[in-house]
Amino acid sequence: MNKPSEVIVLAEDRRQQNFARGFLKSWGYKNRKVRFLDLPAGRGAGAQYVRERFPDELRALRKKLNMTAKALVVLIDADQRTTLEIRQALNAQLDSTDTDPIQTDEPVCLFIPKRNVETWVVCLLDGQANETDDYKPVVEDGQPQESGVRFGRAVRNGQAPQPNWVQSLKDAVPEAQLIPRA
What we know:
By secondary structure, the chain is of the alpha/beta class. It contains six helices and four strands. Strands 2-1-3-4 form a four-stranded parallel sheet, with helices on both faces. Helix 3 links the parallel strand 3 and strand 4. The radius of gyration is 15 Å and the shape is globular.
């Protein structure tokens, strides 16, 4: 496959976008090669926004893969649910819109942090986190991007997930590998 000319990021909020920005930067993407879709309006609407927009973005990606190689990065928090439940909800959304499921050869990455992306940030920067506590109050603005860079570098360099990584972060490693390097 050709290297993507543009990566599309569909996320719930700014912190998720910044995590993706750091990850893609470590993967070699320049800012001009990454397009962040508009964020949802209103608090608490993020997950629904991502679920509803996902089929359209997947169909758009499929149309453009033949013309110019692209990739899609989707971020959606698991919150109190399991990552499997969120993945099933995304698949159900595809099914309800007559959109074919994600194929194994498609450059589509689903990042599903359990409880939220701040869990990954604390885990990557501090080393100590769990998937039940809410770390939103302790994460500072620049930290999501910094943690995305750390995660991307670890995956790019072929490092095994650290033993202290939460399970949803470990699960993100094969997802990250679906995105071609720039």
